[in-house]
Backbone:
């Protein structure tokens, strides 16, 4: 289990290799990378700035990771989330879950990103041709998180 | 009592951090938000739509009836948009 | 869209970077890596050998990838599958799906691995303390694939 | 007609590839399997449990009633276990 909050980019290959290296009990590793798209809603965006609540962010990410490990039999988990200024195409977040079996790895990884999206105190400020604009929370994200409130 | 404002609430209020000393009658989150809203037009605007305001006391999400006391760190922010 | 069948290992970071490099329309990249576990059923296994039907394998993997792209709005997909001798901890397969949105990326990636497991002509021969043993197809894998027969 | 055997069917039959020339009456997959099963005890053993046998004609999965003709490449194998 590990979480990191950082300004710098991360190397996906290095991060994932570290999760499974030397392990022979892992059959499945699912990962998710979130990237900055150049379309935010209707308006073409340039860059964005991710603000966060240092201290609480780490606590919330650790809680999200603990919850995943409580719900599924996992061999390793990782969350890396960036803050600061990001350009279109830049990586924002990495979630990974390793397990003996692929169903658990997929569900846990999906849970990690859905849950952190409604829990971790990050806020996106987009540069748009109309000026800076705070991104509004999406009802879709709430629905995605709601799905995990009543685990099957 | 330390108040932290984030995202567009911070922009409205005009500061990221303020130290405040409300009267003893301001003993829960709901009363604190009312008290803060009266401090300036910016505060009032930030807190106008109370349903989109999230509050954390000492870095834990809380509801409006959660108690607040002198040493607390109280963060006020809109719904999160990370990931 | 790309599929590869190869004896050599692959570098997950390099493969995933290649999918998203220079793109600003991708918001979500989900990947799955399957690895050799040292528990095959009850018996502790050493290494395994993956046999495949060269020619048909490539056709079937390409068909699986086409089907994913027909079902979801994807920006990029990749399947890399190894054959030959593999040790516990070795990577076997990589599936990846990139999309503007994360639901599509997750579902398509999950589909890629579930579908190829029942379609692509690979067979695992495990070394066990009792000798070589052909792995039997799992009912779980059929059920996992069946879920995608009636897309929601 | 080229027959390819894979995995434990190959082990039973004892060869990965064989070229066969069945009579013209062997015109679909079901009849071909019956004809092959009669070639040797190994073939019979490989094809004993017909429900776990998969067949591809010219690298496409087919059913038992699929026609087979002289130039075909016919692969016979157990359920796949890759991934």
Residues:
């Amino acid at each position: 289990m590990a979480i990191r909050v950082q300004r710098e980019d991360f190397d996906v290959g290095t991060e994932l290799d570290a999760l499974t290296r030397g392990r022979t009990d892992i059959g499945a590793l699912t990962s998710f990378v979130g990237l900055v798209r150049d379309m935010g809603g209707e308006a073409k965006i340039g860059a964005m700035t991710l603000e966060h609540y240092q201290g609480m962010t780490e606590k919330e990410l650790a809680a999200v990771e603990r919850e995943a490990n409580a719900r599924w039999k996992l061999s390793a988990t990782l969350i890396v989330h960036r803050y600061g200024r990001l350009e279109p195409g830049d990586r924002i977040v990495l979630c990974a879950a390793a397990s003996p079996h692929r169903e658990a790895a997929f569900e846990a990884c999906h849970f990690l990103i859905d849950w952190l999206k409604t829990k971790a105190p990050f806020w996106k400020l987009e540069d748009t041709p109309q000026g800076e604009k705070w991104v509004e929370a999406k009802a879709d994200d709430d629905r995605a998180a709601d799905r995990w409130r009543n685990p099957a | 009592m330390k108040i932290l404002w984030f995202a567009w609430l911070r922009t409205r209020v005009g500061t990221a951090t303020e130290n405040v000393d409300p009267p003893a009658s301001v003993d829960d989150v709901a009363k604190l938000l009312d008290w803060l809203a009266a401090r300036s037009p910016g505060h009032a605007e930030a807190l106008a739509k109370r349903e989109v305001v999230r509050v954390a006391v000492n870095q834990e999400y809380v509801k409006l009836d959660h108690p607040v006391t002198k040493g607390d760190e109280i963060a006020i922010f809109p719904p999160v948009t990370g990931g």
Notes: The longest helix of chain A spans residues 102-119. The mean pLDDT of chain A is 93. The longest strand of chain A covers residues 91-99. Chain A touches chain B at residues 34, 50-53, 55-56, 59, 81, 92-93, 113, 116-125, 134-138, 141 (CB under 8 Å).
